[in-house]
Amino acid sequence: MSASYTLLLNLVQLDPLTNGGTSIVGYETARAVMGYVASRPSVRLVIAVNARLAANFDVWSANLPKTHYILTSLDFHEPPEPLLQATVPDVVVSPIYGGAPFDVAAMAQLGVQHVVLMPDALPLLHPEYFPPRQLSKRRQFYADLHRATVVVAPTQHAAQTLRAHVQPPIAELHVIPYGADRLQNVLVDESAFRPAEPYLFYPASSWEHKNHDFLFRVMEKVWQKRPALQLVLTGGRTRAVSKEPLEHIERATRRHERIHDLGFVTPEHLKALYQHAEALVFPSSYEGFGIPVIEAMQLGCPVVCSDAACLPEVTNGAALMLAVGDVDMWAETICEQLPEERERLISVGRERAAAFRWADAGAMLIKLLQSLGLPEERGPAVPRDSYILQTIAEHRATADPPPPEILKMASWQQRLRTANNRQAQVYARFRILVLVAKLGLRLMARYLRP
Question: Is the same domain home to 387 and 426?
Answer without folding.
Answer: no
